[in-house]
């Protein structure tokens, strides 16, 4: 492992711990709530709907946190493998300022912006004539 990236590794390990803690709290909140009020016949449909919405929102946010945690863990693996700091798409060196801003970034600015500009398959279906 390159000692150059030890500050990044420290930040990534701290981010991983934070994401894991947040995810645990969110999962507990969404999945372990007292549902005794919702198992009987609801007296207030708006309250029931609000509770269901809150639970769905929490589960959606949990998915986003899981994606971020996965990116952090992949960056830690890249440090261990010696490929950290190189774009996974083109192999170019990722600028230090970019790594400092987003320590789990896997692509250089050019490749990331090209990927964002690519239309999805849904966009092709909408644009192409039938």
Q: Can I get a quick summary?
A:
The protein is mainly alpha-helical. Helices cover about 70% and strands about 0% of the residues.
Order of helices and strands: HHHHHH
Give average pLDDT, whole number.
79
Question: Count of helical segments?
Answer: 6
**Low-pLDDT residue intervals, each spanning 5 or more residues:** none
Radius of gyration: 21 Å
Second CATH tier, the architecture = Up-down Bundle
CATH class: Mainly Alpha
Description:
This protein is mainly α and 130 residues long. It has one domain (3-127): DksA, coiled-coil domain (Four Helix Bundle (Hemerythrin (Met), subunit A), Up-down Bundle), CATH 1.20.120.910. It is built from 6 helices and no strands. Helix 1 (6-31) packs antiparallel against helix 3. The termini are far apart.
Features:
elongated; 68% helix; Four Helix Bundle (Hemerythrin (Met), subunit A); mainly alpha; single chain; 130 residues
Secondary-structure blueprint of this entry?
Layout: H1 6-31, H2 36-39, H3 45-81, H4 96-101, H5 109-117, H6 121-127
Helix pairs in contact: 1-3
